[in-house]
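Notes from hallway chat w/ T.B., transcribed later so I don't forget. T.B. wanted the structure written out for a chain they're using in a teaching module, and asked if we could keep both sequence and structure tokens in one place. Agreed to drop them here.
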Amino acid sequence: MSDIFEYLNNNTYPGRGILVGKYADEIVIAYFIMGRSENSRNRVFRKKDDVLYTKAYDESKLKDPSLIIYNAIREYKTKIIVTNGDQTDTIFEYLADDKDLKQALATREYEPDAPNYTPRISALIDGNSYQISILKKENEACARIFYDYEFIDGKAHFISTYDHDGDPLPAFSSAPLEFSIEDDFEGFGQKLWDSLNKDNRVSLYVRFGGKEKIFNRNEGD
């Protein structure tokens, strides 16, 4: 698979997704959230200092914040943490205690949202390499799976919470997918946003080196 846009165009509900790669010697990060329920769709991304977080768009409609309001991206020294839940803070705390990603995620498991049991997906960027992980339910246990990559210019890896739409939602079942990056910052971000299903997309964050952009459906993007 070489085209992330084609993959997403053909997938109405990958859920939440993380992409990490490199283009023109700049680290590329993308994180998006989607939603099927009113509670999930009632969100926007906000960024303060080096923290990207989710926030209720209409506080009066917020029902249960436990799995939808969290820090999605944090930085610890030269390392960048990207996740789909509050394990972002767990990883940050473990790094600050001179521990690693595997030790942090050994304390966490998939989300308790039966019957979907949404996987927790995470990425940790450190210098010239990055790790991607998924914690998902397998039988009655939590499988903790980790992948290690070196940056290659023009390449990226992508993981999402679900393979596709369904009831219950099927957990992402393969290794992270490898894609080519052939667009610059502006082109890539807009095309990625346009590739997400318009009924289900909620927010997208894209970063190329020091350039970043946020797309929020609830704010007219």
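Follow-up for T.B.: Residues 185-195 form the longest helix (11 residues). Might be a good example for the class.
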